[in-house]
Design goal:
Two copies of one chain form a homodimer.
Chain A: H1 7-15, H2 22-34, H3 39-52, H4 56-68, E1 83-87, H5 96-104, E2 110-114, H6 124-128, H7 140-149, E3 152-156, H8 163-174, H9 181-195, E4 199-206, H10 215-231, E5 235-242, E6 250-252, H11 254-264, H12 270-286, H13 294-299, H14 302-313, E7 327-332, E8 337-342, H15 344-356, E9 370-373, E10 380-381, E11 386-392, H16 398-407, E12 415-418, E13 427-432
């Protein structure tokens, strides 16, 4: 078959700062998925996109082209609104666990397609797999049935959604082209749009533990994604939220499930509750429900009931206890004072090295590995107080976990104790489509 | 074996506009040659280099790293100076044929490693292979012997020189990264430095038929290469020369040999003679010979004698007649006037399509295919005069050759006839190292 474009011609346009035509975009994404455009050609194009950028129209077309390489789900027959949340990834970010059942309390279906962790950021599926019997892999039919009959579903994205993205993401990972905002935005949004949700709320993380280190980059990414959603007919908004400090006290898998259960029981860390409620309000507002008080549904047990139904529907043992790790070390305060730094990246890397995360997609994760903070940012400590405990199932990992805390922040360490009070803000800004 | 760098880290440095360290450059070039750095990683890096540029020190190191992947020739034992010329490629550029024996007349050894044509630019080896019996492939020993005993040698570069460049060039060709001046310069200079010449003169072409379309780009390339040569201890200078019009009247293979013989016999087109003499003076001056009059050696037969010895030494039949193509078409003037345009690219593409050139490295070329100009830029024509004849061994190629002339210059055609006189300059500028 004769191809209607030449890869080098397409690369040259972007290389020289031009705008790719709709047909060039459609072709290059499709031809790459078919293997006609080679990896070395796509990586060169990705670098040109990183350097030269893309217009809003180009990004929208690129996203549509990625969606067109796979299947699209359709929830229009459910008879109720659908809302989904996507986080760009953080440390201790277990928000999806309480959030999905909480939003479903109000009659909204929550088709929460989630991923696994890579590097220092955790993955929702890894956390939920701490629950014995719980199944991440559902067929489209099972997913539909659960949305209809229960409301919330957290499961693995099938390989049929935007296969171009899967191939392109793996390529970007090894070619230094992950950090291109048009490609990050289209990667996330292609899957979310293909998934067929009616409302999408983005939690764009900012700070040391996040992909975006400063708020201007994060805002650009949020605006790009919100516009993409709007262009595709999905009601999309974004919160820019702090990820310089871990969310909550638990960083890991089983311990994050436990902390989520505290939140669903009406307690839990203030920051986790605040962000869960803020995102729930965004999702509900998108679905037209503006008079709900999600904090109330956490306190009165309705969210917990929904959680139990959701977990049980996927085979999970809702009453299972999370196991304790056999190897535990304590990190103590060396002076009196206030915690002025609890670095998200440092603690994320520590938990990862202890066994909670993975370096390669095919690695297993440990249920009981991770870090438990006993104190967090802004709290008062006395010399000798335990600030954190490190947990692992593999003794040899412990020194590497401890070292990650010392090496954090350019060797200054993941923890700092000072004098003054510390102001902590969770939600930094909100972005919605200008159009 | 553990690698001492990570490809993604190296890519990121250049991607973000930084300077690669010597050790990063040494590693990435070597690791790419060994296959440890993948094609898709090198193409992403090449695009980053294209976008971000490289410092003089980075380019010198990159070139040295490419040289280090292969062997280096050494002519220091010859007992006479060595000088070589490199052209960036043009249409009708047969200069190497008279130039190499001409310079050798003065006792200079000329180790002229040459290439084959690709696309609309011809290749010196393709032209010389029009001579029955002539062998392009010499062993290093044969090359040395000919330099010592005859003086000039024009032969194929062995695969042992800068193998990294061969692999990288093939990659750049399919990834839209050919046009990066640091990579063009290091590609050319790595082979020339590894070849071991003492003096190098660069003929950097400018104009429609050249790789560099404007003189500022050409000057940047020339300066980069001249500096690279100087940094490597090779006496290097460059002439920027016009390639908006073909050189001479012959464009092809056998016909260019014939025209070269005219020059070696003391005649030939004025532009070819002018450039041959100018480049010979540069090479001789580099070798410390400043009192030579190369035009004299063309007129008095010394250059022709040297040509015959050079060709015979490589098995060529020096008295062979060049064959005539069976299919010939004429292009005639449609009005009286002066030729104000004879477009190098248009005629180069025509000759290529007629069979003189190749689209892929493995294609054969035709000895008798090409174009003969009967008039060139600035000459007077009358309506009906033959301006050019097209020659091919394959009848079906003729319409495509004719069409190339009509399609040239955005459809205005390769030929224009006007009124005024036309000034033609061959040598536009000269560049030597500032240091």
């Amino acid at each position: 078959m004769t191809e209607r474009h030449d890869a080098v011609d397409v690369i040259r346009v972007k290389r020289d700062g031009g705008t790719l035509s709709d047909d060039q975009i459609d072709w290059v994404v499709d031809a790459y998925t078919r293997g006609v455009v080679a990896d070395e050609q796509m990586s060169s194009l990705a670098m040109a996109i990183l350097q030269r950028g893309m217009s809003r129209a180009e990004i929208a077309r690129w996203t549509a082209a990625m969606i067109a390489t796979g299947e699209r789900l359709d929830f229009s027959g459910l008879g109720r609104p659908t809302a989904d949340k996507h986080s760009t990834g953080g440390v201790g970010d277990k928000i999806t666990l309480p959030l999905a059942p909480l939003v479903a309390v109000y009659g909204v279906a929550v088709p929460q397609l989630s991923g696994r962790g890579l590097g220092h950021t955790g993955g929702t599926l890894d956390k939920l797999e701490s629950i014995p019997g719980w199944r991440a892999a559902l067929s489209n039919e099972e997913m539909h049935a659960q949305l209809r009959e229960v409301g919330p579903v957290i499961c693995a994205a099938g390989s049929g959604l935007a296969p171009a993205d899967k191939k392109l993401y793996a390529l970007r990972d090894v070619t230094g082209t992950v950090e291109a905002i048009p490609l990050i935005a289209s990667s996330i949004m292609s899957k979310k749009i293909a998934e067929g949700t009616g409302v999408l709320v983005l939690d764009v993380k900012v700070g040391s533990g996040a992909f975006m280190k400063d708020i201007d980059q994060a805002r650009e990414l949020a605006e790009t994604m919100v516009n993409l959603g709007a262009d595709a007919g999905v009601r999309t908004s974004a919160l820019l939220t702090d990820m310089s400090t871990p969310l909550g006290y638990a960083i890991g898998n089983g311990n994050e499930v436990k902390e989520s259960l505290d939140v669903l029981a009406g307690g839990g860390p203030a920051d986790v509750v605040e962000l869960t409620v803020a995102l729930a309000k965004e999702m509900l507002a998108g679905a037209g429900i503006t008079d709900a008080d999600p904090a109330e549904a956490l306190r009165d047990g309705r969210a917990m009931d929904m959680w139990r139904r959701m977990i049980a529907a996927q085979g999970g043992d809702v009453d299972a206890e999370m196991p304790e790790a056999p190897h535990v070390e304590e990190v103590r305060a060396d002076r009196d004072g206030v915690l002025t730094r609890v670095d998200a990246l440092g603690f994320g890397v520590a938990a990862w090295r202890l066994g909670a995360g993975r370096a390669r997609k095919e690695d297993p994760v440990q249920v009981s590995a991770g870090v438990m903070l006993h104190k967090t940012l802004g709290e008062t400590v006395k010399a000798g107080d335990v600030i954190a405990t490190l947990h692992t199932e593999t003794e040899s990992r412990m020194p590497r976990g401890l070292a990650a805390l010392d090496e954090a922040c350019g060797g200054d360490g993941a923890i700092a104790i000072g004098d003054g009070p510390v102001e902590r803000r969770i939600v930094l800004d909100r972005v919605e489509s200008a159009i």
